[in-house]
Amino acid sequence: MNGMLFEQCKIVPGFQDQTGAAITSDWVSLKNYQRALILVHEMRGADATGMAYRVNKARAVAGTNESNGITTFKEWTVADVASNTGDIGATAAATVGDTDTWVAVTPAASITGSTTQSKGQWYAIEVNANDLPDTTYQDYDCIQFEITAHNAAHYVSCWFVLYEARYAGVGANNPTAITD
User: Which domain holds residue 80?
Assistant: First the structure.
């Protein structure tokens, strides 16, 4: 991939930091993109409840003919990521995280996060647009990230990074992903 990130990708917020037992992102259309990487960040509160999540698909950004819990293309996680303990620029001792090692997770229709991590956790979930159509509907092209079980003491956020545009676009001219 040549060029700047924003010239090659469309970055769309799914939902900002929030707490709650169940959270769903907005629907994002992949009709103009081949792949999506869903980045999820979870900061644990005092409770060690694991987050349960899934990716849903639909035929339109309104959630038309929604199908819950698709098996994703690839998934990774990096755990025990500490929040910043100081101003990163101030001292060499400031801690950003304990690890930057991403570990592959077996893709499934629903995943339950770890209950043993004491700090934060990141998830990276890759969706291939070619995997969305099925025998019932060939025009599935929208996805949504959903947390089905969570603890109110945990903060979580979600972002979509869409890439491999199907049509030419540069920077601000990349095709939209929030309308059909």
Answer: 8-173
